[in-house]
Design goal:
It contains five helices and no strands. 4% of the residues are buried. It has helices at residues 10-21, 27-52, 58-69, 76-89, 97-110.
Length: 114
C-alpha cells in the first residue's frame, strides 16, 4: 500500500482496534472518530504551513500548500520501479520484501495478457 502523508498514530489505531474488537463501538462511530481525527490533523498542518510559508501571491501559496498536503500518488509502474530499486539497492526507506513483492505484483497484474 502506498504511504500517505496523513496517517493515524499507532495509539489511535490501537484504540480503534480495541474498541472494534471488544464491541464497545460500532463501525459508524469509529469511522466518524477517524474522520474527525483526520480533519484535526489536517487543520494542524495548515497552521504549521501558514506560519512557515513565504509567498507573494495568495494563489501561489494555495497551490504550494495543496501540493504539499496532497502529493500526487505514484503510478503503479513507478511504485513497482521504486520497490524494485529498494530491493536491489537495499534502500531502507522503501519498506520490506513483502511490500516490494506486492508493488511489483500489482504492476504486473495490471499489464494486459496479450
Amino acid at each position: 500500500m502506498t504511504e500517505h502523508p496523513m496517517q493515524p498514530t499507532d495509539e489511535q489505531l490501537a484504540k480503534w482496534e480495541s474498541d472494534w474488537f471488544s464491541e464497545r463501538e460500532n463501525a459508524d462511530v469509529l469511522l466518524i472518530q477517524a474522520f474527525q481525527a483526520g480533519a484535526d490533523a489536517e487543520l494542524d498542518r495548515w497552521k504549521e504551513w501558514i506560519e512557515d510559508v513565504d509567498c507573494d501571491e495568495p494563489q501561489e501559496g494555495r497551490e504550494r500548500f495543496l501540493a504539499s498536503r496532497r502529493p500526487k500518488v505514484p503510478s503503479l509502474k513507478q511504485q513497482a520501479c521504486d520497490a524494485l530499486d529498494a530491493y536491489v539497492y537495499g534502500n531502507p526507506d522503501h519498506g520490506d520484501k513483502q511490500n516490494t513483492y506486492n508493488a511489483i505484483r500489482r504492476a504486473l497484474e495490471a499489464l494486459p495478457d496479450d
